[in-house]
Amino acid sequence: MKVNDFQDLYIAELSELRSVEAQMADHLGALATQATNTSLADAITAHRNATENHRDRIDTLLQGHGATAGDSHDDASMHAILAETDKWAEMIDDSNLRDAGLIASLQRMEHYEIAVLGTLASWASKLGYDHDATVLSGILEDDKVCDARLTQIAQNGIDTKLH
């Protein structure tokens, strides 16, 4: 996709975000099976369901701009975070320690999403795409809630077992 103006940049980044959401949705199911803490496994499963919904909502936004999901693909950022997550999960035998590592990796994913969503919501507002800004801000809030839930699980159920 050729980027010639701010609108093109917005659409390219939105398409990349859609790719990120799709990669995460595909990967979160496997991560849920690696978690041994029930609250963590449930949180990952819930996040997968939310991520699938986010992916579909972004598809709708892209379609509204005459773009498709395949116009731009994230081959680096989320791909690297997911590969790092797999590496940690395979390296750690202790279940509590692996759960702590999973939370750290999941929060990296969330923080990446939060950064991109905040930027895109702001850009959508600047471009006058009020509906897009509302949708993206809603997804952003969902991801902040997920991040907070992961922190709570770590503090109350996992980190306490590692001392």
UniProtKB/TrEMBL annotation:
Highest taxon, organism lineage: Bacteria
One Pfam entry name: DUF892
Alphabetical list of Gene3D superfamilies matching this protein: 1.20.1260.10
InterPro entries membership: DUF892_YciF-like, Ferritin-like, Ferritin-like_SF, YciF
SUPFAM superfamilies listed in its UniProt record: Ferritin-like
PANTHER family: PROTEIN YCIF (PTHR30565:SF9)
This protein's name: Ferritin-like metal-binding protein YciE
Organism: Ruegeria marina
